[in-house]
Amino acid sequence: MNLSQEWTIPVRHPPRNVVAMTTNEHSHPTTGLNPEHAPRMQPWAELAPDVYKAMVRLDAASRKGLDPVLAELVKIRASQLNHCAFCLDMHTKDALAAGESVERIVQLSAWEESQHFYTPKEIAAIELTEAVTVLTDGFVPDEVWEKAAKQFDETELAHLVAAITTINAWNRFAVTTRMVPGHYKPGEIKH
Q1: Which CATH number covers residue 70?
Q2: What pLDDT was estimated at residue 53?
Q3: Do 3 and 96 meet the contact criterion of CB atoms below 8 Å apart?
Q4: Residue 93: what pLDDT?
Q5: How many helices (DSSP H) and strands (DSSP E) are in the chain?
Q6: Which residue range or ranges hold the Carboxymuconolactone decarboxylase-like domain (predicted)?
Q7: Rounded Cα gap, residues 80 and 108, in angstroms
Q8: Reduced to 3 states, what is the DSSP secondary structure of residue 12?
């Protein structure tokens, strides 16, 4: 698979009337950036730079000691649950750039039926990600926590919880402000 793509518009938030196209190795359009919804603000990071910088630092700090591929799986799964197209675009590309396979990324939304694709440690992280992200019971179930605690030492677990919490915050910024997916390039954001 050729991961390099040409981008006709290299901006984080295209103007409302701009259409950008990406192409894959077959040279047909894969994404037309004529968003379903216009962004609510142009870009929030410029309007609240101190908050953005703090989030970038928090994101970098939360990932310390975590396997980079595992961290991207966590970000992708939380972004799927939160319906965050911008973060799905970003973290899928980052995962591919970090060496993750397309197959494992595709299977992530149905990981319970395809557990053989993932290590026990990754499954524990994915389950904890779901429990923290959804919080349907109002708490993280003990069995989910205990499974994660068996796979991660306390420092890793603390960073994993921080990474899950941080991606949930990023998802909420992106969904609320309607950040437009499709134009992120891996490594574009420096931490």
Answers
A1: 1.20.1290.10
A2: 95
A3: yes
A4: 95
A5: 8, 2
A6: 49-130
A7: 9
A8: coil
d(CA 143, CA 81): 20
Between CA 90 and CA 92, with CA 91 as vertex, the angle to 5 degrees is 95
d(CA 71, CA 167): 10
d(CA 49, CA 115): 40
AA letter at 86: F
pLDDT in the model for residue 22: 42
Provide the token pair at 38.
């216009």
Crossing angle of helices 154-177/120-134, nearest 10°? 50
On whether residue 97 sits in a domain, the answer given is: yes
Cα angle, residue 169 at apex, residues 163 and 174 outer, rounded to 5°: 125
119 occurs within a structural domain: yes
Query: Per the domain annotation, does 34 fall within a domain?
Result: no
Distances (CA, A) of 41 to 1, 17, 28, 91, 173: 35, 14, 30, 22, 11
Residue 124 vs residue 181, higher pLDDT: 124
- Asked if residues 44 and 33 have their Cβ atoms less than 8 Å apart, the reply is no
Is residue 144 in some structural domain?
yes
pLDDT in tens, 130-171: 999 998 778 999 999 999 999 999 999 999 999 999 999 999
pTM of this prediction?
Answer: 0.79
DSSP for 17-78?
Answer: T---EEE-TT-SEEEE---SS--SSS-HHHHSHHHHHHHHHHHHHHTTTS-HHHHHHHHHHH
